[in-house]
Input
Amino acid sequence: MPAASGYWGFWRSAGSTIIADMKAHVYVTLKTSVLDPQGQTIQNALRKIGFADVTAVRQGKYFALTLADGLTADAAKALVERIAKEVLTNPVIEEFTYKIEE
Output
């Protein structure tokens, strides 16, 4: 479905710059208050093989999203935030950051 019509049409804002070929990079990690046993295991393994300068490791997930042509920067931001909140993360134990590449 084209970005300018249908379900996502309400995301568009008049007068905004439309950007083609945008990619969003979404990083999902456990909240700092949540124990990360996999990260601790990796950190311990690194220490054992000589990387003692690494004092902590937090593991996570990475998602690369290619966005439809015709989205404004504001619409892309709102879309990525909604996807990250509603689909990519468990809000009880995870948080996310993202970067949109134009």
Remarks:
- The chain is about 25% helix and 25% strand.
- The CA atoms of residues 27 and 97 lie 5 Å apart.
- Residues 1-15 have pLDDT under 50 and may be disordered.
